[in-house]
Amino acid sequence: MLTDFKNLPDDSRIWIYQANRKLSDDEVANITQETEIFLEKWTAHGAALEAGFEIKYNRFLIIGLNQANASASGCSIDASVHFIQSLQEKFNVDLLDKMNVTFYSGDYITYKPLTDFRKMAKDRSVSKNTIVFNNLVNSKAEYLENWEVPASESWHSRFLS
């Protein structure tokens, strides 16, 4: 059951999929349409899942699930991963690689492999004040409060001296 992301409670479970490149406006429109169709039919053991999503900065697909009515099961999580894999194939984009870092470089959003980010930290090209996207947040409240944070306040801090 599709709902507006804004209407999901703060304790809703969140999944963040970051693209390895900026998506075009046409791709965002198509991904929006396909995500609406998927979430409208998404179920766990026959129970409709109340879910919403948003696409941020033409780079991130954020899916939220209100677990008060029904929680995601192994099968429903598998279905969502298969859906994301289908988006990857259709749009020739990587959405599942967690070994990459997205951060602000000035006014621009930059996407780098973790090894490059480590090197940038060592070379002091990024600092504890660099704004990073902490895609490990688990709830809508964490997403709203702790997703775009200085690297010093995220798991990224382990790479900074």
Got a strand count? 9
Order of helices and strands: EHEEEEHEEHEHE
Q: Averaging pLDDT over every residue, what do you get?
A: 93
Q: Per DSSP, what share of the residues sits in E-state strands of 2 or more residues?
A: 25-35%
Share of helix among residues?
25-40%
Number of helical runs?
4
Unreliably modeled segments:
none
Q: Supply the helix-strand structural class.
A: alpha+beta
How would you describe the overall organization of this protein?
It comes from Aequorivita echinoideorum. This is ABC transporter ATPase. By secondary structure, this protein is of the alpha+beta class. It folds into two domains: 5-91; 100-159, no CATH class. The protein is built from four helices and nine strands; from the N terminus they run E-H-E-E-E-E-H-E-E-H-E-H-E. The chain has helices at residues 25-41, 74-91, 114-122, 140-146, and strands spanning 13-18, 43-44, 47-48, 50-56, 60-66, 100-105, 108-113, 131-133, 148-150. It has a three-stranded antiparallel beta sheet, with helices on one face. The longest helix has 18 residues, at 74-91. The protein is globular, with a radius of gyration of 16 Å. It starts with 12 loop residues before the first strand and ends in an 11-residue tail after the last strand. The model has no long low-confidence stretch (mean pLDDT 93).
What does this entry show, briefly?
By secondary structure, the chain is an alpha+beta fold. Helices cover 32% and strands 26% of the residues.
Topology (SSEs and partners):
Layout: E1 13-18, H1 25-41, E2 43-44, E3 47-48, E4 50-56, E5 60-66, H2 74-91, E6 100-105, E7 108-113, H3 114-122, E8 131-133, H4 140-146, E9 148-150
Antiparallel strand pairs: 1-5, 2-3, 4-5, 6-7, 8-9
Organism: Aequorivita echinoideorum
Protein name: ABC transporter ATPase
